[in-house]
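Batch job 17 of 40 flagged for manual review because the log was empty.
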Amino acid sequence: MSSTPYVAADTATTAIVIYSGGMDSFTVLHRALREGLNVHALSFDYGQRHARELDTARQVCAALGLPHQVVDIRAIHSLIDNSALTNPDQPMPQGNYAADNLHDTVVPNRNMILLSLAIAKAVNIGAERVDYGAHGGDHVLYPDCRPEFVEAMDHVAGIANFEPVKLHAPYLYASKADILREGLAMGLDYRLTWTCYEGRELACGMCGSCRERLAAFAANGVTDPLGYNPDTTAGQG
């Protein structure tokens, strides 16, 4: 990550980037910056299982001097608490991404909620675009990361307000390995991200999110710089 402070350009397109603090949105954020856009990072606290990603997002944006807002929408938690990602009493599924073993990690209607709020902010500040990190690896499990959903939301974003907003998912047809490859080419430091579904000191290495991340690094022939629980067998590689 560049140490050069972010300076907005007066004439550039303004974009809202939904930034969770994970590696996908981290890459989307820096891709938008590389485009020369006026970037406003937007994160959401919806009562997720832990706040490690949000803390990471705050640190990255502060280091960049980037406009960043964390929106507290925990009031809706009781509407979306039937998920292992929002209910700490539910056991966290482990294993590779697949519809049969990670269904419990689906948060009901999450991206429609977050995108609606991001579109509202875009209209409010005159931003032309909202970026988010849906990618091809999520299609099997998360309906709100599939092309049909993105296309429908893009259409809605164009007609829901007097000012049309473009919904941009640059990695919609890319794999996690593809995203990482592009980020590594940009020189990004993925120690500045948090992917694990758990919020402990070290990543668990066993949840679906960790396993997908580790597989992406392995596919690129690079060791993940993030610290993992040494007792897990996922490891580096």
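Reviewer: the log was empty due to a logging misconfiguration, but the result itself is present. Strands lie at 14-18, 38-45, 68-72, 129-131, 166-168. Unflagging and moving on to job 18.
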